[in-house]
Amino acid sequence: MHRVDRLSFKLALEESVAMTKWGWGLTLGLLPALLPALAGAASLQLQVLDRDGRPVEFAVLSLEGAGLAAQTTGPVELAQVDKAFVPPVLAVRTGTAVNFPNRDRVRHHVYSFSPAKRFELRLYSGTPAEPVLFDKPGLVVLGCNIHDWMVGYLYITDAPLFAVTDALGRVNFELPPGDYQLGLWHPSNPDLLPQARGELAVGAAGLNQSLSLEWQVAPLVQRPPAPSAFGQAFEDALRESPQ
Ligand SMILES: [Cu+2]
Q1: How far is the CA of 110 from the centre of ligand 1 (A)?
Q2: Of the residues 81, 85, 116, 137, which has the maximum number of CB atoms within 10 A of its CB?
Q3: CB of 142 within 8 A of CB of 111?
Q4: Which CATH number fits domain 40-212: 3.40.50.2300, 2.60.40.420, 3.30.950.30, 3.40.50.300?
Q5: What separation in Å is there between the alpha carbon of 76 and the centre of ligand 1?
């Protein structure tokens, strides 16, 4: 009895795999017709390096130019994990709502005093019921009232295309060949201001370009400062005192 059941289950499974394969073939065949805008897309690969040639992670690269359709952003989140903002840099389009889930067992109190968005999420656990709407372009620096060392950056942009560099300092855009104005922002930028990086001519064969910053970039760190001797003695005294 058991064996028969298993056999029929296996047959059903094989049938569904075959269906999936067939389904894929059909989908792939239809894709070019459904996405005419991407038919002539070229690949633009950019890599950001610092003065010493080290890859720069968490740089925001943005592109503007005629014929670029604005990319849509779905629901977005910027979490708190191990008492740090994750990711430490998030780029979103103007008008995006962002959730700030707290994945720690301690509570956080997230705030910003930046002109692009002043807000405060009072001491909380879990995910606040309402996301925060970022309706003006600009930079929003995030902090936590409880953990002074936590710092995060929300880069809000009107640019139709943008991306944040990975650990190798790289981003990759698929876009129609053309001329584009490139913008670059990173928390190490002087005065936290974005930089215009000139025009890029992307041909049908695509473009692979590296961009060098004129300064050194240290990795972003969100960790409590090492306790001083006094601080440590204070902590120890707290731990030993009867509650
Ligand atoms: Cu906190």
Answers
A1: 7
A2: 85
A3: yes
A4: 2.60.40.420
A5: 20
